[in-house]
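Incident review: delayed structure delivery

Summary: a single-chain prediction request sat in the queue longer than the usual turnaround. Root cause was a stuck worker, restarted by the on-call engineer. No data loss occurred. The affected request and its eventual output are reproduced below so the record is complete for anyone auditing the incident later.

Affected input:
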Amino acid sequence: MTKKERFERMIAYFEEARPTAQSELVYEDPYQLLVAVILSAQCTDKRVNLTTPALFAAYPTPCELAQATPEEVLELIHSISYPNNKSRHLVGMAQKLVADFDGEVPSDIDELQTLPGVGRKTANVIASVIFNLPALAVDTHVFRVANRIGLTRNSKSPLQTERELIRHIPPEKIPIAHHWLILHGRYVCQARKPHCAECGIADLCEYHRAQQRRGDKAEKPC
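Output delivered after worker restart:
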C-alpha cells in the first residue's frame, strides 16, 4: 500500500466513523478554549473540564484574569498538573492578550505563540478549532497513532509529524483530522494496550501487522 493510499483509506474510514469529531474540552468562546488548552498540557480533558467552571466564573474575560495574581488563580486550579507554572502562564497570557491584542484571541499561529504558556501545539489547536485553519496540533496521541498506522515513518519530533501529516491530508480536512487522530488514540489505539480488534483501520496499520507477525512466529513449533 502506498502512502497516498494509506492516507486516503484513513480519511475515508474516519469520515464515516467520526463525521463530527470535535474537542472534548468544554468552552464557550476563544478565550475559554485558550485557557482550557493551556491547562490541558499533561492533564486529562476530564480534569480540565472539572476545573474550568469555577475559574471562568471568577475570571469570565481576559481583562479580569489579567488583574488576578498567580496565587489567586492557583487556588482555583490546584488539582491540575503543574498548577504553579500554569497559574503564572494564565495571568501572563491574559495580560499580554489585553495589552497587545485588545483582549481578542488572535488567529495567527506566530502571534499566538507570543502569549505565555502557548507553544506550537496550543497555537495550532486554537487556529484549527476556533478559526478552522489548516493547522494540525500534534500531541502524544497524534504522534503515536500516526507512527503506528504508518502515516509517518520514524518521525523524531511533533513538528516532523505535523509537516508529514499536513503534506498528505487535504487542507479542508486538517482541522477535523486533528480530532480523528486524538480520539482514536485516546479510546482505541491506546499507548499500552491498543484495542486492535476494535479498530476499523487495523488492516492498514503497520503496528498491528508487526504484532501479528510476532504472534505467528511464537506459535511455530521448535
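Verification: The mean pLDDT is 94.
Action items: add queue-age alerting; document worker restart procedure.
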